[in-house]
UniProtKB/TrEMBL annotation:
EC number from the UniProt entry: 2.6.1.42
Full protein name: branched-chain-amino-acid transaminase
Positions where N6-(pyridoxal phosphate)lysine occurs in the chain: 184
Biological processes per GO annotation: branched-chain amino acid metabolic process
Amino acid sequence: MEKKNIDWENIGFGYMQTDKRYVANYKEGKWDDGALIDDANITMNECAGVLQYAQTVFEGMKAYTTEDGRIVTFRPDLNAARMVDSAKRLEMPVFPESRFIDAVVRTVKANAAYVPPYGSGATLYIRPYMFGINPVIGVKPADEYQFRVFTTPVGPYFKGGAKPITICVSDFDRAAPHGTGHIKAGLNYAMSLHAIMTAHANGFDENMYLDSATRTKVEETGGANFIFVTKNNKIVTPHSSTILPSITRRSIMYVAEHYLGLEVEERDVYLDEVKDFAECGLCGTAAVISPVGKVVDHGKEICFPSGMEKMGPVTQKLYDTLTGIQMGQIQAPEGWIKVIE
Ligand code: PLP
Ligand code: COI
């Protein structure tokens, strides 16, 4: 199969239309068979549930070309399961997990010419999503839904790639206790837009959100979980019921323990102790592992010893091991890699 003529090394994290997308419709209590289609546009009623009350959930995954030329994806079963949790929390019907994986596989296969080559630094981002499509004016769940998957080739989420970023402690909250912070709902991102624009206007790359109940504990950023490395090489990640359970973070914790023999800890992480860590990184599908060089808390700077030039040594090891597994250079744990073709 011939690849598209794209400057793979220089693409950013943006939308580029690809040839095919998967669509399934839910009506009268059941999902139809679903199909791959050409049209990238959606026509819906002006009063569609998604437009009025933001009834939409999504997932983010990637397809990779391995060293030996296969196209694979990473732990799609966990994305399928998380979408079930997201849908239930927003009173949406569940798209069956096996069908989710099948839809992802079919969409990636149909767009194989857009899967960036091995070693290019780019990947094919996969976006499954679901939304209420029939007219809804009283506040209630829609009766009809559409599930879709599209793909787009992407480069690094943060412009500098592996260069450490500077983040600020946000004055805005991302998620409330007992709210929707633990699911992947569009509404969580809509309300973060003002916060990210404010951070950018103040010269920061991202926000560090604190727990909204006490504003003493580190939660996550707008699109990634945190990992910290202690001065004696322990990997620490915040435990919270209001952060998204990142598949990348769960995988990193496993890799740290079982591949690198490091001690790992998921626990409350207080803002006050951030200054004591040796390294800090953001982890997620889009972000992979992006090193954080500096956290600014209302003018007070916390500079990690790993500095602003390159990833800290432990973060680098985690990054190399995780991406090595994803790109097929390192043997993956059973069930982590789904070969697409
Ligand atoms: N946290 C938030 C708020 C996210 O949007 C994402 C991205 O999906 C993550 C964390 C990372 O999750 P994952 O590693 O499953 O992509
Ligand atoms: C992802 O990492 O896949 C996400 O969905 C994060 C998003 C903010 C791009």
